[in-house]
């Protein structure tokens, strides 16, 4: 399956000069996602946005891994189409 995804974000004061570096990293499971999140934070990332495949347990694991000074957010529809319409909590 070829996944096509878009990440669209809002910045209140955006104009034609607004730029952001966004890392989009696919992970096989929560364990890999924890490792990737830690590496991103070590490289200076201060906010992590998780896809809807992360259930509540997965979100908590990432937050615990990166610590309280890193903002962790998640898109929520909890039944992700790329995971067979299941939550990562059921799979990992």
Q: Can you walk me through this structure?
A:
The structure is a single chain. The chain has 92 residues and is of the alpha+beta class. It has helices at 30-42, 56-66, 88-91, and strands spanning 47-50, 71-74. It has a two-stranded parallel sheet with strand order 1-2. Helix 1 (30-42) packs parallel to helix 2 (56-66). The two termini are 20 Å apart.
Provide a compact summary of the structure.
With 92 residues, the chain is an alpha+beta fold.
**What structural class do helix, strand and pairing data support?**
alpha+beta
State the total count of DSSP E strands: 2
Order of helices and strands: HEHEH
- The Rg value, from CA coordinates, equals 14 Å
Q: What is the helix tally?
A: 3
> How many strands, which pairing sense, and closed or not: the largest β-sheet?
2 strands, parallel
Strand order of the largest sheet: 1-2
The overall pLDDT, averaged over residues, is 85
Give the percentage of residues in beta strands: 5-15%
Q: Tell the overall outline.
A: globular
Low-confidence parts:
none
How far is it from the N-terminal to the C-terminal residue, by CA?
20 Å
Q: What is the helix content?
A: 25-40%
SSE arrangement:
Layout: H1 30-42, E1 47-50, H2 56-66, E2 71-74, H3 88-91
Helix pairs in contact: 1-2
């Amino acid at each position: 399956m070829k996944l096509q995804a878009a990440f669209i974000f809002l910045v209140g004061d955006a104009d034609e000069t607004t730029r952001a570096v966004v890392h989009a990293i696919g992970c096989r499971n929560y364990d890999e996602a924890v490792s990737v999140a830690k590496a991103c934070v070590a490289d200076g990332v201060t906010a992590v946005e998780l896809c809807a495949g992360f259930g509540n347990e997965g979100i908590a694991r990432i937050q615990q891994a990166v610590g309280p000074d890193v903002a962790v957010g998640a898109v929520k529809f909890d039944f992700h189409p790329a995971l067979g319409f299941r939550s990562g909590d059921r799979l990992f």
